[in-house]
Design a protein that fits this description.
single chain, 328 residues, alpha/beta, nine-stranded mixed β-sheet, 11 helices, 9 strands, 18% strand
Length: 328
């Protein structure tokens, strides 16, 4: 198994070192760790010096345009593992993380395995207004996901693994969607890839195993309602792009259940907590309603833009490091 960690800023220096250290401490050792630097020469040089004595850690620049999708594609192309795992640069993996990923791949139909992301709040605890149903806002697993090892439509990109042949079948992460260094915290690139993979290979199995755990740091700026509102609006924009690309049936299949079952239950839970004088109950219920309305607004705006301008996804073919060496 190869592990790819995409990085972009020296502000996360300590987080990056901790992420790499958590991979090196795995009970199922990684074949290699690839740290892909997104168009930041100073960070690239600093990391190259940091790991120059560690052969199992390779530092390389993003070979494509700025953004997370191109960074991941760069890591895939340069890797040698039969399975490629992805870890966020501000997260640390538990020691059995890769072992939990590896086990299901004994079934050749398994094309992807994801895990559980636990938030680590910079303030030391969850803000009392922040509903667990919206932990995806800060890149973490949320209330409403099924427990155990289960089949899913898509996995979360910050704690994910794919069989190498999945990229041969479906191509890499699409450009034109997801994080690209812009002002809005967009997402959806892993959702689009997973749906595209399922279309290309209908018998593919995609799993989440909640025992494959990482701990994801939530910076203080993301603990405020302003970021919550920005992120939910951006998710609506992203979902409109995904639905335009793969169709609303698949593009919104999971979201329909989430919106009609999980979120109403969360509102009722918040109102019950408010009636019992528990801290934050009414605000959690209000945040859920606000999150739904903001995401819906983003989806409407994104849908209008997509119809007017079309989608600009670019699905690239992933080159293979061994192919390039043969060519040389």
């Amino acid at each position: 198994m190869s592990v790819v960690i995409c990085v972009y800023t020296e502000d996360r220096w300590a987080d990056i070192l901790a992420a790499v250290a958590s991979v090196r401490a795995q009970t199922h050792p990684a074949l290699e760790t690839l740290v892909v630097v997104d168009h930041n020469p100073a960070l690239l040089d600093r990391l190259a010096r940091e790991y120059k004595e560690h052969d199992e850690v390779r530092v390389l620049p993003n070979a494509g345009p700025r953004g997370l999708s191109a960074g991941r594609n760069t890591g895939i192309a340069a890797s040698y593992g039969e399975v490629i795992a992805f870890l966020d640069d501000d997260a640390v993996a538990e020691r059995d993380w890769l072992r939990r990923f590896a086990d299901p791949y004994s079934d050749p139909r398994v094309m992807a395995v994801g895990g559980r992301c636990e938030p680590v709040w910079s303030s030391g605890r969850r803000p009392d207004w922040f509903p667990e149903e919206f932990d995806w806002v800060v890149g973490c697993s949320y209330r409403g996901l099924p427990p155990g090892r289960v089949r899913v439509r898509n996995i979360l990109g910050g704690n994910a693994s794919f069989r190498r042949t999945a990229f041969d079948i479906a191509g890499g992460f699409a450009g034109g969607i997801g994080r690209d260094g812009g002002r809005r915290p967009m997402g959806g690139e892993e959702t689009e890839l997973c749906i595209r993979l399922s279309h290309a290979r209908p018998d593919a199995i995609l799993l989440v195993d909640d025992r494959a755990v990482i701990h994801h740091r939530v910076p203080g700026a993301r603990e405020h309602f302003g970021y919550f509102r920005t992120r939910t609006y951006a998710e609506g924009l992203s979902k409109a792009l995904v639905a335009r690309s793969v169709g609303s049936d698949k593009g919104l299949e999971t979201e329909r259940r989430y919106t009609t079952r999980v979120l109403p239950a969360g509102v009722l839970r918040g109102l019950r907590d408010a009636a019992l004088a528990r801290p934050g109950g009414a605000r959690r219920a209000g945040a859920i309603v606000a999150g739904v309305l903001t995401a819906a607004g983003g989806y409407v705006v994104g849908s209008v833009r997509a119809r007017r301008n079309g989608t600009t996804f670019e699905v690239v073919r992933i080159g293979d490091a061994r192919d390039r060496e043969d060519a040389v």
